[in-house]
Amino acid sequence: MKKIKILKDLIDNAKNTVVFTGAGISTNSGIPDFRSSNGIYKKYPQDILFNIDYFRRDPSIFYGYLKEILEIDIKITKMHKILAELEKNGKIQTIITQNIDNLHEEAGNKNIYEIHGSLKKFYCEKCGKHHNADIIIDKVKNSEIPKCSCDNTIRPDVVFFSEQVKHIQKCIKISSKSDLFIVIGSSLNVVPASWLPVYAVENKAKLVILNNDKTNLDNYAELIINEDLDMLGCRFLTLTK
Ligand SMILES: [Zn+2]
User: Fold this and answer.
1) 54 CA distance to ligand 1 middle (Å)
2) What does CATH list as the number for 1-29+77-116+165-241?
3) Is the pTM of this model over 0.70?
4) Could you tell me the CA-to-CA distances from 218 to 92, 193, 198 in Å, in that order?
5) Binning pLDDT at 50, 70 and 90, where does residue 27 land?
6) pLDDT digits (tens, 9 = 90+) for 90-123
């Protein structure tokens, strides 16, 4: 049987499907991913870009990166649209994402856990004041580094390295209760997020990995498809019509 048909059958037969997404799902939107050959870390080194101590000393690297991302004409990908449709039809129950780009919400998904936070919220670490994201984003687009009224640099509510991942206990619970766990566009390199599929598999869920490259958990997977995600999405759609 063709892999794509197996995928459809797995989704049709599951009762509680969790989809876990990483940067790879957003590359077709125009956002570069982190670790591939054209990835963000080639230009902005990993140990600087999401390093909170470095950000506190010099936020210009992070905000320079953010400005660059904001200048891209970002489009919701076919795979995001398919996931929204599947949730609407009751075929998937939860999205857990490592992405901070808000594309799942824009596509129409409702039950989303953004474990690395998002760019919808900005706040000041010093005085605790929350700041309107639209205003901050306009400032960043104008190459300004956003400052709070207390003169401290405003930070995004995203998870930097060494900071605690959000909703992790809840996501462990949800993953453990799933009977199908689909990884999309994640190389599963970042802990503790990469443990979630393991919780799922240990509790007898079937694991599916849809990714361009190999992952550390390929050995545990019931099904692996290494293919461009939008191409895969097209083939999936022809199967459901
Ligand atoms: Zn402040």
Assistant:
1) 18
2) 3.40.50.1220
3) yes
4) 22, 16, 11
5) confident
6) 999 999 999 999 999 999 999 999 999 999 999 9
Q: Which residue has the tokens 């390929």?
A: 218
Q: Which residue has the tokens 């503790």?
A: 192
The amino acid sitting at 171 is C
Residue-wise pLDDT tens digits, 220-230: 999 999 999 99
Fold of the domain spanning 32-71+117-158: SIR2/SIRT2 'Small Domain' (3.30.1600)
Centre of ligand 1 from the C-alpha of residue 152, in Å = 5
Ligand 1 center to residue 145 CA distance, Å? 14
Domain ranges of the chain: 1-29+77-116+165-241, 32-71+117-158
Is residue 116 among the annotated active site residues? yes
Helix then strand count (H, E) for the chain reads 11, 9
Confidence bin at 155 (pLDDT 50/70/90): very high
Most confident of 29-38, 124-133, 211-220: 124-133
Report pLDDT for 37: 66
Residue listed under structure tokens 């960043």: 140
Q: 27: phi > 0 → left, psi -120 to 50 → alpha, else beta; which?
A: alpha
Q: Are 41 and 211 in contact (CB under 8 A)?
A: no
